[in-house]
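Limitations
The structure tokens in this dataset are predictions for the assembled complex, not deposited experimental models. Users should treat interface geometry with appropriate caution, especially where small molecules or nucleic acid strands are included. An illustrative entry is reproduced here so readers can see what is and is not provided.
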Amino acid sequence: MLEIISSRLLASKIRIHALRMVHQANSSHIGSCLSCADILAVLHTDILHVNPRHPQCAERDRLIFSKGHAAAALYAVLAEQGFFPLAELKTYCQNGARLTGHASHHVPGVEVSVGSLGHGLPLGCGKALAAKRQGASWSVFVVISDGELDEGSNWEAILFAPHHRLDNLIVVVDYNKIQSLGVVSETLELEPLAEKFRGFRWAVREIDGHDHNAIRNALQSVPWEPGKPSCLIAHTIKGKGVSFMENKLLWHYKAPDVAQLEEALRQIGSDT
Amino acid sequence: MRTAFIQELIRQARLHPEVFLVVGDLGFSVVESFRDEFPDRFLNVGVAEQNMTGVAAGLASEGYHVFTYSIADFPTLRCLEQIRNDVCYHNLAVTIVAVGGGVAYGTLGYSHHAVEDFAVMRALPNMTVVAPADPVEVRLVTGALVALKGPSYLRLGKTGESILHVMEPKWVFGRAMMLRAGGDVVLVSAGDAVTVALKVGELLEDKGVSAGVLSMVTVNPLDQESLVHAAETAKLVVVVESHGSRGGLSDAVARCISGCRAAVMFFTLDVDTYVRQGVCGSRKYLSEKYGLNPLYITEAIGDRLSALRGAVRIDT
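Predicted assembly:
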């Protein structure tokens, strides 16, 4: 039970930090941050073997956060886990800071710099292949967004991974159904997404992306099929946790003002 | 040149266990010897250059020095953002190898011609750009690129290139090599165009003009010292490259010697006209038709020398 509370608490902290960071920086993508907070929390409390004091230790699990525009959420979880001081979160998007608007590898705990969608999965394939060739036992987790799957570079990697039996590679799709100009189903329909991945010879599971037990159970039991990479389709809600942000395209772009921030924090806080 | 490359890569791989070769479903009858000797350090990703480069960057981030390999513009333009963001921005040990620089693939047409690669590659941060002129230079630069441990672009010819260095040259990375001594005119070139420059040098010599030829080897970093020396001692510096007129070796040289006393001429491929005309041809045919005809270049140099005050008179 302590573990469940721990990931729940961490997810709330991620949300609170992200809201404050996006407000202070007057930046975008809070909706994207809120949809993946639970995934990031469970990854860090229960799944990833990483050491905040030694972010580059050779045996660590690699987390490639390919939806780099949700950098605020990634920075928040890394700071909470002790990769760098919490106080540094205030410098998000500020002049002279290293916390750039899209995730940067100059920040301890961030594996690769991203920002242009579709780069993380091929990079993850390269790392997973390196582990296999070197006989290493660490895993590679790649978090991607639904809109990101429009990029063809992903599909080259999606063909590649099962061909090379990269069962140390796990993709988590933050499937919040909204992309940049509208909903996924009206922009470029991804359904049937699970069948697509299965057709490409991945092992696939679908869960509620805000159910910590479901996230935990799924990710603790990878690989689900020996010899196959795993794809966890996490059905999420853009803006999850803040009632007026949930499922709204606007919050892909807008930063909350003071009143909105206060209300959002109140809602998250009362949820903790 | 591609055979010399793979032979040297095999030699390097025997010495350096981090050397890894990733090909984009090309290299038939070239890469098999590497694959057979180092199956765990070879990968064919299929016709998927973006993944080729992303995977290469991933491998390099875990300690390998990866050579990606394809032809013409495929390993560069098709996956340029991966080179820019994944390789160069992270300063990873990835060497991008393109067989068939310039119009080496002749009759296969425009899709298979690399005539803007210098311009694009030299614009990238941390990117070393290398264009050896013959199999001897290929061997030298391949070892140097393994030692460099950062991003690099290696533009090769194809096959059938003459050996230009009869004796093993003394070479230091980043320095040009003088293939022919001469003081009135210095021809500056890189890659397969060096052969054109050498031909022009011979033709000028026949007409009493002392013409030197520099093979730059590295387009970035450019051997500024050798260039400035040439541009301060010769009357005329002439750049010859198998590349379009914008952004390549010509522009790099111009920027380097803009303050020097020598006059400068540039001979590049007229890609704009080539594209408009859509003509088919071998490497030799296309090169000569679209700007790299040694006879035409020699005549143009002669005219320029005549026009320069105190120029050496030549008979046409």
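Some entries come with short summary sentences. For this one: The mean pLDDT of chain B is 96.
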